[in-house]
Amino acid sequence: MRILHISDCYLPRLGGIEVQVADLVGKQAEAGHEVEVATATPGESMPGVHRIATRMPFDLPVHPMGVSRLLRLMTSRRPDVVHIHAGAVSPFAWMGVRAAVRARMPAVVTVHSMWDPVTRAMYRGLGGLFSWRRWGLVGTAVSEAAARPIRAVAGSGVPVHVVSNGLDLSGWRPTGPARRAPENGPVHVVAVGRLAPRKQPVRLLRLLRAAAGEVRLRATIVGDGPARGAMERYLRKHGMDEWVSLPGRRSREQIRELLADADVFVAPAPRESFGIAALEARAAGVPVVAWARSGVADFVRQGKEGLLGRSFDELVSSVVRLARDRELREAIAAHNRETEPVRCSWPVVLESFDDCYAEARSRVR
Q1: Where is the Glycosyltransferase subfamily 4-like N-terminal domain (predicted)?
Q2: Among 181, 197, 308, 323, which residue has the least CB neighbours within 10 Å?
Q3: pLDDT (tens digit per residue) in 100-132
Q4: What residues form DSSP beta bridges with 248?
Q5: What pTM value is reported for the model?
Q6: Considering its fold, how many domains does the chain have in total?
């Protein structure tokens, strides 16, 4: 099958969508598909990557002539399906949708983020302006939490399926013995993610500070981003820099090593559409603490793979409970080590997308 992926952002930029799309492209190519990518992200030439990029203010990944350029690419390459990847607001991706509709090509749109009330209102307005609900699209979201607001806006005219992000489970499966925290030592809490305000990393520090008032903790928060300065000031102000470490960005290999030394993983963002870092921790055998209404709840069940909270105080209590209750912590860790989140494995994800492609082709016919 010839597949054309369209994404505002792509390699060499590194982020959740960029890495996930690149991994999907690689896995589909390994499965025998002919796969190409169109992106508005500038960068060096890469095989199969069409960079429809121009200089824009703030390096925004968009092209003013995106629709015509993408339409020209589609009519010359003639893909069997166009797979568009969108965040909350992705102008170039939606230019790809319009080009696919004009070219009468099957289109699957994957939304990688959560639609907040403002975003939902915007798409309702665009529905009235462009009637995109009648374009024959097939939608996918990365979790049930992300799919609910999309279905509320799209209505019955656009099928919205849940197709998980993919993970190479073998690369995260623990190989050494299960970790046992020292009897009287601190419990090691780990978090991984971009240090951006929308991820609320300072709120994570507040959570750790509240939990540390009841139990002994040490924490490692991996990642980098614009909120790092605010986090460092918070740590200094509250005397937390002796037991909270901000090592910056780390490679996948380094994160695997860190997770082998972790007792608890915390996913602090309340509007997390999926949580690939939390999935990596769960696959590595670490109990996960996360918001009950986030996408993490698709692969973390209460008391099984971790603990879920519906408020800040419940998240604090969950961390404290796992720190105090060694038996519960080790039981969850053992379950995570012995079982795999199969629906997040690449074979299942690829099969799910193949089904969506078939549905999109039938809708165009």
Answers
A1: 15-170
A2: 197
A3: 999 999 999 999 999 999 999 999 998 877 889
A4: 222
A5: 0.92
A6: 2
